[in-house]
Design brief:
Number of domains: 2
CATH topology of the largest domain: OB fold (Dihydrolipoamide Acetyltransferase, E2P)
Order of helices and strands: EEEHEEHHH
Strand content: 25-35%
Distance between the termini: 61 Å
Oligomer: single chain
Number of strands: 5
CATH class of the largest domain: Mainly Beta
Number of helices: 4
Length: about 160
């Protein structure tokens, strides 16, 4: 049984482990929402190494940002490796939403097109007039202005 003031449970892919000398940390990327910073101690290093790149459930004490209420970090009490639910969860996501994949695996062009509901062009004339735009649309002038602007100024007029 885990006890504490603010015990939370999160599930996601365990990524970006940093096995620091004084403080070790990793990130858990949930299927939805922002990654969560997780802190772990020396005794948990081997378990984090084994679970890196896998889908896990983290139980630990959370610190929250007082302004936003979002979890700033979680001190890990327990790590449980789970089956990867991305295939099951993908059915619930809107079309075109990228899903988590194996760390080294990239989707094929066909998979990306299917996920985004992109069809091959059947009439090339539908592409006419879309790029590079009108002959005198001001694009070249904007690029020239960017090239001559002071990079320290942060903007151009």
């Amino acid at each position: 049984m885990v006890t504490g003031d603010n015990i939370r449970t999160i599930e996601g892919r365990l990524l970006m482990a940093d096995f620091g000398e004084h403080e070790s940390r990793c990130r858990v990327h949930p299927l939805a929402g922002e990654p969560v910073l997780c802190l772990f101690d020396e005794a948990q290093k081997d378990e984090v190494r084994v679970d890196i790149l896998h889908y896990v459930r983290i139980v630990g004490e959370a610190k929250q940002d007082p302004r936003t209420g979002k979890i700033a970090s979680i001190k890990i009490h327990h790590i449980h490796r789970l089956n990867d639910p991305t295939g099951e969860a993908a059915d619930w996501l809107p079309p075109g939403t990228p899903t988590a994949r194996d760390f080294w695996e990239s989707p094929t062009v066909e998979e990306l097109a299917k996920a985004q509901d992109v069809q091959p062009a059947t009439d090339v004339t539908t592409l006419f007039g879309t790029w590079p735009g009108e002959v005198n649309d001001g694009f070249e002038e904007v690029i020239e202005q960017l090239r001559r602007s002071d990079p320290g100024a942060g903007r151009f007029s």
